[in-house]
Amino acid sequence: MSVSLSGCNSASSHWDFIFRITAALKSGTACDCNYLRLTFFDNPKRTRLWISNNTTAQNPQSNTSNSPRLFVQKVLAAGATAAFPAQGDNVRRVGGASNSFQTDSGTASVGTITAPGTADDSLHTLIFPNGSLPCSASGPMAYLRVECGATSNGPWTPLGGLAEINPCVPMIQATVCRFDTTGNDRYRLGISVLNSCGIPASSFRVTNIQRNNDTNFPNEGTSVWSGNQALSNAVTNIDMTSTGSGGQLWISFTTDGGTNTSRIRVSTNNNTCVGARAAAESEAGTPEPLTAQSEAETGTSTPPETPESGIPETDASPPPPPTDQ
């Protein structure tokens, strides 16, 4: 995303994640539970469950303090899976101290998670494409508290302490050159693996390229290429098959066959492709700065609001690959 988070406006630093979490099945042990209550906390200033300016949440775009902490809470039957956060989830501010983990009293509602591709749709996260942290951000992406209950209404017994969610985020990078000379032009993208997280390059597969004029929302515009292109240890060139319009190209990719999808964004330019090679492979190629949305969608990496799926609109999943958008 191009929107600042926690006062950090470094390029390619704001990503969106959604995590899918599954409650354990009963297995005949003393820790078996009919129901699990899961409380998912953000970690300000590194992550925020809310991005819009709000009296209760303050202004997550400019607030550089490590507060206020927000959370969403769900009850899952054994074996059930849910997204954190998901559209319609109630986001609440913790009770007591603004950076506490108190949820039993004194909490205040901030709002409900909105539809994918909108502002308050995910866990907004500070992270660079290579996995490092910008703007003195620290700690995990999120914390998770797990409690056991005999019924969906409890009573609830804590299972261990707070767990940290901080996955390695698989990431790609891309350069762009123009090989059409008329109209809106078609572009060639030279795509390679930036952060593998131990995953073979051939497991990285590009599935869609979307073109629009929006630096935050990857679902706008027109698909100008779709398929299932495996990457390699070198640069893989993909030519747009249609033109569309706009100065932003959103590249969707997956590392797990489509369970999690991430998106990165690159800007178009006037660099002409050299011969049959992409500018990405020649002295004429000029890398464009990346932003993305990881949607662990996660993670909707949107890691790569697209992963943004993410997990990299991202929608970034547990673990996400990141809709920033």
From TrEMBL:
Residues 278-325 are annotated as: Disordered. Residues 294-314 have a biased composition (Low complexity). This is Uncharacterized protein.
